[in-house]
Amino acid sequence: MTETLKTDRLLLRPFRDADREPFAALNADPAVMEHFPAPMTREESDGLVDRIMTQYDAWGFCLWAVEIQETGKFIGFTGLSRPSFDAHFMPAVEIGWRLSKDAWGNGYATEAAFAALDHGFGPAGLDEIVSFTATTNLPSQRVMQKIGMTHDEAGDFDHPRLPDGHRLQRHVLYRIARP
User: Fold this and answer.
1) Number of independent structural domains in the chain
2) CATH no. for residue 131?
3) Where residue 1 falls among pLDDT bands split at 50, 70, 90?
4) Which residue range forms the structural domain that includes residue 10?
5) pTM of the prediction?
6) How confident is the model at residue 2 (pLDDT cuts 50, 70, 90)?
C-alpha cells in the first residue's frame, strides 16, 4: 500500500479501480498525449495502472493518482518512477506528471511535483531525480524549471524507443540533487 501525500489543494494517493475510466479518457485525449507517440487504448491505460500499483512496494515511491481535495476529482498522476530504457544517465529515478486537460493552468503539476520531490529526497532517500521530455514539450519543461530542476544540455538525448526521424525523438534532460 502506498503512502498518501497531501498538498494545500491536492491528494497524491494510490490508484483505485474507479480511476481507471477517467485515466483511460485522459490517456486517449490527443491534446494530453501530444508529446507522446500516440494516445493510449483502454487496454494500454489499464496496463499502466496495473504496473503503477506494484511500484510503491518495490521501490518506496510511485506515480500517485492526483485528486483535487475540495471536489475529490481525479485529474491524473504525478510521481516518481524508474525508466526502463537504456540511456547514458541510467539507472535513474524520474519525476513525471500527466494531468487531464481541464486541470491545466492551475499550478497542479508544480504543486504535486514538489510533494513528489519531498518524498523522493525524504522517505525514499534518493540523491538525484531526473526528468525528461520531448524538446517540443515546453509546458513540462516550465514545470521542471519551477520545481528547481536544471537543464543538463550535455545530457539531452534521442529517445531509444522512438525511430530515427520521429518528431518526438529528441529529448531534453533535467536534473535535481538532494538539497
Assistant:
1) 1
2) 3.40.630.30
3) low
4) 5-177
5) 0.94
6) low
